Amino acid sequence: MKIGLRILLGYFLIVGLAAWFLLNVFVAEVKPGVRSTLEDTLVDTAELLAGVVAGDLRNGVPALANVENYARRNIEVKIGGVTKRKLDFRIYITDVHGVVIYDSANLALGQDYSRWNDVYLTLQGKYGARSTRSVDGDDRSTVMYVAAPVRDGDRIIGVLTVAKPIASVQAFVDRSQRKILQRGTLLLVLSLLIGLAFAWWLARALRQLMRYVADVEAGRKAVPPALGNNEIGTLAQALHAMRTRLEGKEYAEQLMHTLAHELKSPIAAIQGSAELLSEDMPREEFRHFLDNILSQNARQKQLIDKLLALVRVEQQQGLDAAEPLALDALLRQVVADAASQLQARAVQVQLDLPPAPLQVQGDGLLLRQALGNLLDNAIGFAPSGSTIRLALAGDGADAVISITDSGPGIPPYAAARLFERFYSLPRPGGAKSTGLGLPFVREVAALHGGSVSVTNAEEGGCRAALRLPLPLAL
Questions:
Q1: Per residue in 81-101, pLDDT tens?
Q2: Residues 278 and 338 in one domain
Q3: b/e map 250-261, b = 16+ CB within 10 Å
Q4: Is the pTM of this model over 0.70?
């Protein structure tokens, strides 16, 4: 299971359990809360009415004769989103023995209520209240009874009970519970969306980081992802810094080893020629050894210059300043740069350009150097008097620049080693290059998100192809 999904599930589990617990608590507390409020109101009402009827009860005639008319009134009152259309108080009064002497609903007149808790406890000077179902097994038929003593001085002479069905406030309970569940569900949905957004952000950042690590492991050009000023961004920068230090140390050791190996031959040739020049010799031999020193020195300079250029692009992880480049103009410039070499070798270039111009985003100087290296190789292996074909074409999302010569082609043993540093094949006449041109082209292609390949052409000779991505159309 991916880490983003694990975090999302863990987050939602915690939020879900917390929300479920709170919802259960709130929903469970709504009904008792409403009942407590109702009981509080009934206590006030019972005490008030008990005080009102005390004087009449002392004379044996309970008041409240007009209460019967109270329940017959037509009302329509909207309370907290619930419409009330019925008045449902019931009031009854018992004497000192618990016998009902007044009942606003005419349900229990003359009955002995002394065993009911509301009357029994009140007659003992305690708080009397009860909840009783009108229908057995049906909680919604419960009626709440709250009693208050009717006093003659300090003596209790009767009990007044106010009753109200719980069903009359059940609508408020149901409405409150429904709102709590709705808001709780909305909270869970919002929490899930927030969790999804956080998990997406984290998974996206980790994917970018893993892609960078995979590119580094594969030896590809890789720039650390911009992940902001957070822990993951700091981790990405730390990985990049560690990679730079480790690669820099290994690269420097390898570079010094290969450079020392490659400079041995020209240094030995210069040393030998210089020692011979210290002796007396004919003018022609003197000139020959002097030319050898100059050519070997030029070879060293070329080797160092090309090696420095290669080092620069190998250590570069991305383009510093990419700009739109017209490839047809770039190819014409590369051909113009090689004019003296083409003339010296008596080689011509056939330039094939597409009708519609092609543009890429890149570094013009690096691409010019890379294409110059490819053309230099083609000129070096092309037979005198032959023609090199330099073609530009679109291939799907890429622009492909191909350079084809009619030389001897690539021998099978060398095909896998062409892009090795310092590896080169002898050119016609025995001359050898530095072996740094193709590695340089490969690095430049990678910096531009492209690739380079060198293969034998079907019609003979060698074909080098540089593939560069075209900008996406808006």
A1: 667 667 778 889 999 999 998
A2: no
A3: eeeeeeeeeeee
A4: no
